[in-house]
Amino acid sequence: MILKILLLVNALVGIGMIGAYLAPIFSPRDFWFLAFLGLSFPFLVLLDFLFCVGWLVGKKYKLAIFSVSLLLPAIPHVPAYLQINPKVSANEAGIFLNVVDFNTHYMGAYDFMGKDSNYFFALLDTLKPDVICLQEFTNLGGYQQKPMFKRFSNEYKSYANYNADILSQTYPTGYGVCIFSKYPIIKKGFLERVTQSSNLSLFADIVVGKDTIRVINTHLKSIVFDRKDYWAVEQMASGEDLLETADFRRIVAKLKYAFKERAKQAEHLREQMEGSPYKLIVCGDFNDSPMSYSYRTIRRNLKDAFMESGYGMSRTYIGKMPSFRIDYILHDKTWNSFNYRTNKLNFSDHKMISCTIKLR
Prior knowledge:
By secondary structure, this protein is of the alpha+beta class. The protein folds into two domains: 2-80; 96-226 and 232-358, Deoxyribonuclease I, Chain A, CATH 3.60.10.10. Helices cover 38% and strands 21% of the residues. It has a six-stranded mixed beta sheet. Strands 5-6-7-8-10-9 form a six-stranded mixed beta sheet. α1 packs antiparallel against α3, α8 (227-238) packs across α9 and α9 packs parallel to α10 (293-299). The radius of gyration is 22 Å and the shape is globular. The N and C termini lie far apart (63 Å).
């Protein structure tokens, strides 16, 4: 009886893994259920690995071969989740660009968890950013926020910027997706505003020496969970039986809607990227894992800075939902990137990520 149950669970895991492999290929607009399996990819791989070990220990070699056959297609995807050989740039000649990406979570306006403002600015001083891409960077007027925005404005007033409405004297628009550049910006604009909200994409063409580079900053559709939703997720994670069917359906519906909206944004953004006259750096909060349609659509032939020079399991979301890598720095395939790192700041539910890109 136990063997039959294990066989059934192993078969379900196998079906889930096949679905996860298909998730980056098929749009959630048509096959939304695959997006859930793509999100579960690391857990499915772990479960299948445990089955593989268990079958080998139990000398069920045919079943072990079945589990191994499911694991083999996962190998090319592992580097997007785990890196063990980080690249550190040597002291060599060339043109380098230090890039920082960060979802600031409105500098802790909703749930400020600690006074990290000094550390935030000290960190930026250490990283010496040439390009800073920020999301959720609108001053909502909180007690902790005001001095941080004022200080940021003073310390980076020499940087060219786009959509940095919090630095203006007028009331902020709320579109807190911003690009700051140490180098001149010769052209800028919105690339997609599919959702007609603060989830949008914009670009800035910057001139670095003889090179012109298009920097894109994107914030794909958020799930927009409220306190009741987070409570329900915590109940599911803890295995409690208090979760009602209505709560489960509401969470699935919100995830499903967000998957579909991100797919539309990613497709539209990809069209705009194809028409770029310059090489690209793409930063942002994708709100999706590496095994997602959105990530695959946007990345296409670009390099992922984490895969180039990251280390360990680079989870970038550290909020109340399960942790995933959903923030990215992508760049042209002809460039190399080094020194990828993540940094946790207590006022945000995302980690700041950064890297150095060698242009030539």
